[in-house]
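pasting input
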Amino acid sequence: MRKRPPGAAGSLLRFDGVSRLVHWATAALVLTLVATGLILYVPALSLAVGDRLAVEDLHIACGLACGLPLALGVSGPWGRRLRRDLASMNRMSAAERSWLRRPGHGGSAGLAKFNPGQKLNATAVAGLLVVLLATGILLRWGTGLAISWRTGATFVHDWFALAISVLIVGHVLFALVHPGALRSMVTGRVSRSWQLRHAPGWQPLPDEALAGEPAPVVRALGEKRRARAR
Amino acid sequence: MPGEPRELEQTAAATGAPIGRRLFLGIVGAGAVGVVLGSRLQAVVGDALSSLASPSGSGLASLIPGANRFRLYTVTGSFPEITRARFHLEVGGLVERPLVLDDAQLRALPRHEIVADFQCVTGWRVPKVAWAGARLSDVIDLAGPQRSAHALEFASSDGVYTESLTIDEARRADVLVAYEMLGAPITAGHGGPVRLYVAPMYGYKSIKWLSSIRLVGAAAPGYWERQGYAVQAWVGRSNGRHDAPIDA
């Protein structure tokens, strides 16, 4: 038996400020991409909105920028927790793989901070975004390419956009069905009971345990403020 | 024990199967293969969906990627809205009688109908599209081309798009100054009220929002032709493509 890390009785930090900022910035960019992409793709919307070049420019700007929040988020000392979460997306234990075969049936025993479905969703979205970015660049700047490649890039861009839209809708629906998980992407925290139900195998690290008390940084700030008040 | 959980996490991270990496690389690989083979896949998907998708591009099935439906292109960002009342077509250059045709004068010319596939150079092909309009040949005969006129330059109301044909191409029976498409007046998105329809050539020859025709000795290359597209845009025999020719 392992000893619980200190403070496991309170709430836990699931996403720190950097992770949340990266998530919501990326979400805003991707949703703008979906909306502008639909306008460019659906003839009725193209005609209703009109100014196609401006919509194109917005779509391309958001596309080029959509990897920036994550790149900035992981690239400094502030990205320690985010880097750790990302690293955990890759590998899956035998227990996780068997959960994937019958999701939701085997219970959550052994599941860590992210369940295997979330891991698959994250890697699939990342792969789709990379392909969408690459084909988008081909379509925008690859005018010298063979026409058959442009046709191929169009075909891939359209199908992958449909695929990522399905994943996004699924992601939002899961978030609405699991308000505890959604709240953790807003406030950063989950309750200890949420963790026991959904992620019992998550061994909170010392920097993830909030113990129902203000985190050390917040406490330090509070003390400073009190000192100034005196 | 602050060090303990970290160690455990590291061992867990090192042991499981690298499924995430496989999925990521698989998706990126599929994307790369799709770019190279996509024009063939496009043809397969297009055929498979041809019974579902409506050619005008309305209806949900036609939104499935790869479905053979019209895609609305514009090079200026807008779709010029020109009413039939305000429409006019200039015919000038090397002609005996420069003239400006309005909607009624254009429709007074003999009406011709063509039903043929519409093939875009980017791969999509809409089967059996019905067109109606005057023959381009009849339009230029109204103005009377001079002997020195060997080609035609076309301009669009969008102010940017241009196209061209040789006079022999323009005289073909399957080249129309079209005012109907799919049994209805041509909509703004499809280049209405009047566009060119060059049946045997790729769609970029069929200039939308046609506003002027100039007869010239030798034509300047059109909008896409300045960017590398073939000037003689025969379907299946140009632009490095091997689509089935259009028989109209």
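fyi The beta strands of chain B are 88-93, 99-102, 111-119, 125-135, 151-156, 162-166, 175-181, 184-185, 195-198, 210-216.
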